Amino acid sequence: MRQEVESKLNPNDRKYTKEHEWIKLDDEASGRATVGITDFAQDQLGDIVFVELPKLGANVTLMGKMGEIESVKSVSDLFSPVNGEVVEINEALLDHPEIANKDPFGEGWLIKVTVSDASEIESLMTSEEYESFTSGQS
Amino acid sequence: MPVQYSGILAEVSAVRKNVGIFDVSHMGRLYISGTKSTEFLDWVLTGSAESLAVGRARYCFICNESGGVIDDTIFYRLEQDRFLLIPNAGNRVTVLDWFQRWIAEKFPTGCQIVDRTMDTVLIAVQGPRAAGLLDALCLLDSGSPLSSLKMFSWGEGVFKGNLRFFAGRTGYTGEDGFELVVESGDSETIWKSLVDAGAVPSGLGARDVLRLEAGLPLHGHEIDENTTPIEAGLQHFIRSDKEFVGSVALGHQREHGVKNTLVGLTLPGRSAPRAEYPILNQGKQVGRITSGSYSPTLDTSIAMGYVLERHAISGSTLEIDIRGRISPGKVVPLPFYSRTK
Questions:
Q1: What's the pTM?
Q2: Partners of residue A49 in chain B, C-beta under 8 Å
Q3: Complex confidence, ipTM
Q4: Is A68 in the B-facing interface, judged by CB distances under 8 Å?
């Protein structure tokens, strides 16, 4: 009786973590990148009701806790996929966390960071690798 | 039952404003009969079986000798000497063992239990439109529509002219609604008909939010074998004029008061406390959360928890430790939500 929800395709213009986040290098020269959660993550969480993000200017560390994301049924820590500095946070998400459900790869992004070492992004999973990583998990 | 079908928020909204359906077949269906069945139930339940009229249902507790809650239950009087009792899914075997122990000890003849959990299905139809939707599909054997049943009454009849059902006007959502026991073989047809008629399939996640908004306890959270119904503020469901398992301990508590008591808490914002988070007063722990969630109906965070009795003051503010973040929690009377009747 369960409805199967077809998951959105994971874009191949970005990299993925085992914590179900994505990071996309927007500008190679400055090392500026956008971080968000994957469609798989939002689907597993269900209706997202609260997002706590790091402060502007905060330093985030590779695999360090950088915030929390809370759905009706559960709460999860957000982990930074890289070392870097937070240069922008998605203010819209704080008032309307449901955007992360609707458009996790676009409007529902979490933060923008300047990455200390861009090679950290390179070492993450590709979209194909992430797909095979999640295929056994749902 | 899955945690969710279309999404918890949409499902909660459907039950509050329209009608939702839950497959709650995981809960037990125990049929208890025999000349001693009333006497037996009056021994193992906090509520009175003897005074329950045929056709009616009652909510109460199955307690141990210390007054701790083995399970909470709704039981229906089917005939003078025949009852249907619904235990929680996870407690069905414990309850059965507990009942068999007392039957062997005190009622060795004249009381039988038949467990029909596996060959029947239990479907909860809940929401302001539940009665209207079911009236269009069901007819009681008496010829009356299902909506003629009073709260906590039951009736039997046919669904779409040929499928037998048992329905109680009961539920666990704080809305009007019915719980239908049907034969397993008919359940898919009935479920599909209900969905086609506009009922929204709803899951465990929505059910938990709905019962929390309605201030209803969940076994394993607000009540368990180490917690009494009096501590949970549910003394209303304990008969004081009969002797039953736990009656001495509960009577003592009633007379001398309790150390901890269950309170409702509302918190600003949407970040919710979860079970076992500490409740503080001026930085010192005075209690713990048992359930918490964002409440879509009230658009704020709500929780239930146990605090030292002297801190259970409606209108006062305590502090909740949400993973290191301290949030104010206002003590409020339960339930958080009650439907307009």
A1: 0.91
A2: 270-272, 294
A3: 0.78
A4: yes
